[in-house]
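Lecture 7 notes: from sequence to structure.
We start with the chain below.
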Amino acid sequence: MSQLTFIPQVKISPSRLVFYNSIEGLCRRSSWESNFECNKPEGYISKGAAKRIRTALEWLLHFSPSRMVYYHDLKVMRPFKLSFLTLTLPSKQVHSDNYIKAECLNQFNIELRKKFKITLFMWKAEAQKNGNIHFHYTINKYIYWRDIQQIWNRIINKLGYVDAYRSEWSNLNFNQYVEKRKLSGQKELAQGRRSFDRATSEGWWQPNTVDVHSVKKVQNLDAYLVKYFLKNADDRRSIEGKLWAISEPLAKFKGAVECICGTISDELAIITERYKSFMRYFAWSSMCKVSIKDILAYLPQSKLIQNFQLYVDKICEQYSIVFT
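Predicted structure tokens for the same chain:
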């Protein structure tokens, strides 16, 4: 039996430090074997997937500082952090989930990368009450919602979804439109009138297939996004194939790993003493819930921060990630 060597290490992430021992000389199971055992029935987020999604959201938020952007509809500058979108189909789904993901969502990803330089994003597929597939989509760059809608509508009309919508709605007068949408009350009718007039002026080519969720008043954005991405809708049909995905550059950010020795050990002793109330202990590891931002404010010249930044810079250079 080979001798085991325990090496104390720390993983540095945007919102926490995780302490554990790396074990040299330990015979591990092959990755295919463990992946097979962790596999879950189609249509559900497994525990392993939930962990990867939480990590990706943590890093996405780290790369999403609040900044001022120009809101086209309001014609004002306002704070912006990230965009949380829902992409839908405007008419009855007639293709498989996998076909729509391959032909539409994949092209949408490509066009956002090329046109808007989007490299950090993630999505999750769900079924609506009407049975249609829809996608929750998160990016950390502001894009005018009409630009997104025009792109998505053009793409899904490759499969005829906007044409089917036009055939269903374009020949209706306003009273028929109100009846079909089951609108009532002064507020609903006024909104319906605006929607009808806008759709008519656009020739019914731009159905409302993109919903932008406002997150500016959300107190705990991390928890809000985790809720959306991790929920399993038991009352809906299962999604065929892949439920979620993280862009390749975002998936590369897992945490900077350092051996606990020398200067790093001294700095960690200072940090854990200052933030000892934020320590959590587990069977094989411990964690300090302190953010990189707090460490930077407390120890701005620390080697821990420098090594974390080197880790981030290396991945950003590899994938040509530029923050604006």
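Points to note: Confidence is low (pLDDT under 50) at residues 29-41. The radius of gyration is 24 Å.
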